């Protein structure tokens, strides 16, 4: 770069950065999510941001994910070294685009150190080279849980997922939401009963999964382009539109399984779905929080059983705010054995962006401080420091103002940061072991003995 050239220091497209009030909101939500995850026994792990490229592509490039490759940038005098040792094959590295494939590699690396079923959570940042747009990022934080077993995994783990989703979103208090549940075996079994070829079923499921985005008419057109007859396409549309209360939908599915040809897989899917729903109810999830939605397919190929999508009612254009499902072969890919798993994922960065824009969430105050000790006189700084430490030891977050400025300016500074209380101690107050406590929200100002200050602040913070 030539001397005097201007550096473009703007944020790279699709890579978010947060103001303090936004980052505090993210940390607040992470605390809620972590608390709920851990209440169900999930344990935290962390996998590298960078994995070998062959690991990330072990199950193909799932969905439309564009992987960011990693290459070292060496100074010119070391260029020959780079050319000589260029990373190819097993040495090529890339940024992880999700947490599931890295989880599979993690389990393979630590197989003999883990206890199964292995229940883990991660809240790492992942990277996708997709086109950046509103609510879509190239770097975002993803909050995942998965339970993985060797050979067999109880369907009650599937039932736990809606209970966990419910607890998280009720704690965040984002309004009414609906967890839509389906089973891929139900869809696959129904397609088989229509005589649709095995090699067409995956593409059909992918098309069904786009129903909300492209509409019924376009879904039928796309199915017919895949070689599905108009009659079959119409029956698929009618099937995925089956609705009603949960038990009504289950009854309709059982009736179909009894009266259609080749319904072994359909019957298995209905039985699994019924087991999961019973578990969801036994876990105390309210009936208005979940439903059976036969249009939910989850487009990724590795899902094999239960699938979930969560919708914020009244804000359906936001899309799914939490999704996931059961898979049978993904995690065992590196070990050559069956390792079934089930999990859900919250794209937290995307979710925060959408909820803030919709006015459903608000950012927090720019600082966690609840109190500012203002600077009235430089010679009283030892008193200010002692009072600040006394309050901190009582569990109160405090900013001590070290800069001497007019009192009104200090009040403005505190108010701008969302600090509610200011503590004022001048010469007279210090001599009498008193302070003035000013509430910037109400304008009220009271005199408090220093020995009672922490108790008074706590009382007013409630």
The Cα radius of gyration reads: 28 Å
Query: Which strand-content bin applies to the residues?
Result: 15-25%
Relative helix content: 25-40%
Would you report the number of β strands?
17
What profile does the largest beta sheet have? 9 strands, mixed
Unreliable runs: none
Q: What is the straight-line distance between the termini?
A: 56 Å
Write down the overall geometry. Answer: globular
- Specify the structural class: alpha+beta
Count of alpha/pi helices: 17
Q: Summarize model confidence as the mean pLDDT.
A: 91
Fold topology:
Elements: H1 20-39, E1 43-44, E2 50-52, H2 53-56, E3 69-70, H3 79-84, E4 93-95, H4 100-109, E5 118-122, E6 125-127, E7 139-148, H5 156-172, E8 177-183, H6 184-193, H7 198-208, H8 211-214, H9 216-225, H10 230-240, H11 246-259, H12 264-282, E9 290-292, E10 303-312, E11 320-327, E12 341-347, H13 348-357, E13 371-373, H14 381-393, E14 398-400, H15 407-416, E15 421-424, H16 427-431, E16 434-439, E17 445-449, H17 453-461
Parallel strand pairs: 1-5, 8-9, 13-14, 13-15
Antiparallel strand pairs: 2-4, 3-4, 5-7, 6-7, 7-12, 8-10, 10-11, 11-12, 15-16, 16-17
